[in-house]
Model the fold of this input.
Amino acid sequence: MPEPAIIAHNLTKRFGDFTAVDHVTFEVPRGEVFGWLGPNGAGKTTTIRMLLGLLRPTEGYARVVGYDAAKQAHEMHFHVGYMSQRFTLYQDLTVRENIRFYGHAYGLRGEALRRREEAIVRMAGLHGRGDPLTANLSGGWKQRLALGCAIVHKPQVVLLDEPTAGVDPISRREFWELIYAMAAEGVTVLVTTHYMDEAELCERVGFISRGRLVALGSPEELKRTQMRGDVLEVAMEEPERGLRYLKSLQATGRLPLDEVALYGVLLHVVVPEAERWQERLRRALEEAGFRVQHVAWIEPTLEDVFISAVKAAG
Amino acid sequence: MIDLQRLRAVLRKELTQLLRDRITLLLIFMMPLLELFFFAYAVNLSVDHIPTAVCDLSLDVRSRDFIDALVASGYFDIAEYAAGEADVIAALDEGRVRAGIVIPPDFAAQVARGQGEVLIILDGSDTYSVQAAYSAATAIAQHHALDLMVEKLRRQGQTFELMPVESSVRVLYNPTLDGLIFIVPALIAMLLQILTVNLTAQSIVREWELGTIEQLLATPIRPLELILGKLLPNLIIAAVALVLIALIGFVGMGVPFRGSVLLFLFLSLLFAISGLGLGLLVSTVAHTQNEAESITSMLMLLSMLLTGFIYPREPMPAIVRLVGDLIPLTYFVRIVRGVVTRGVGLTLVWQDVAALAIYAALAMYLAARFFHLRLD
Done:
């Protein structure tokens, strides 16, 4: 069995007193779409920079496509694609100049480069649009072009750091189609995001919170194993006022509510046992004068699981 | 170590970006030219034609002789005549004049008794002009007194041939003490330093600011390839700018060039490289283009003050001189004044050349070391 595409072992990065990444261990097998999830400042980018050999781990090690990231970064870079947080293209270069520059940087030339250039222009949806300055492209195109530049050399592993931040929903969906197309060709994709709906699209996800890996597994697995308690969905009028009321119940301990959160116009309430608390919750709300449409026991979303896992980790 | 294809990739990208932004490119060449003109004619170091108020309470032959001597020296221009000492001070207060001369009544009689006294009042808020006026006035007064004494002795029947000591001064290289000859070669050097440091610092800090450098470091492009790919176009720009400003300075402004042009160009190249190295160092400290600009402005100020470009370094305290030693211009100012103005060869400036070479190598080495530590 070949070595996994990505191995992080006790990976740790400290900046002075601050531990950005704290003994993180995980593996990503070849061809998997792996989500690396966590709130801002949790250590997602620092992890990626260590995987790329841009940062030296304080402890532990990372291996990517069989290379030690700290010691063999240069050799490794020929097989790894990276798209950093701010689609870092040169705004004052044209689309094709950007592609060619990155192509040359990876040692492509001649016919091979021309073929990749055409493929990327097509992939970004920019064929037949001439060769505009990158600055004049809108968000979705810039994002797809940045991905194209990151994979100009057909890497085995692609690391994407918040690739969909600030992009419209349609472009986001198209972008995920590109990610699946890559995975179908056997490319390993590690993608960071804080959109939970995107996390559901990953084969496996790792949750990172304050530098520590708090949960790891497929979305279904995590929902089964990492969720403490059951999730009740409450549909009611005046959900904001309902949220404040339930929080007060939580604070006084009148109902054992582990978590109360607003989900659009719905409320998610985490209780120890759904059967036992479903009706009591409805009654408590109605007694307080709220009009409740329904209280339903639902499967937890990844966001519920994430919050639960972070709480459990302390 | 260096892959030529990757170096070429960076070079091509840099040149494309440079040529795309025509306005910036134009400014890169126009700024030094404008600065050359403004500096060369604004930094006029000789202070003469000081506006002066004269209060002559004596109005006799002797007082008129003395005033004539002051005016004839070229240092003093009579801007106004005042009725009394108070009026002279008022004129100084209001800034209409920077010097005042008060000649007491009966000046001729006092002179005859050997007790002639004139009052010279100077505007101390402008020490630069005052120093020049002070020494000029003192010299003129003494010279005038000597003339009077000789005349007096002659009338008493004494004869003598010569002064016991006669000094004759010969100024080499710049016989008329022309300010341009002093300023222009060093100014060209300073403009070259500003250009190389700024170009390099800005072009690298810009990539940090945009985040593109992180993307570059994740490609097989090695830091050395990136640095060279950025420095070479800047060196070309510096060379073109140097030829332009040197042509204007030495041909257009007529400042004499006595030494070897080839040696000058060669040493300028070395100096430019040390400037690129200093720019690299700035880029390892600054995080944004604004920060880089603040640092380079500070550097420019220090270069003007501490390198011997205008003010002599000898009277400076050792610690201040040491700060000057950290700026490559300090060495190159001495080199250009040697090679260009005195026309000497490498044998007489080799120490500064060696210092500059060490400087360039050290700056490059340190910058390359720090460059990689940036993300950590």
Remarks:
- Chain B touches chain A at residues 3, 5-6, 8-10, 12-13, 16-17, 20-21, 210-212, 214-222, 375-376 (CB under 8 Å).
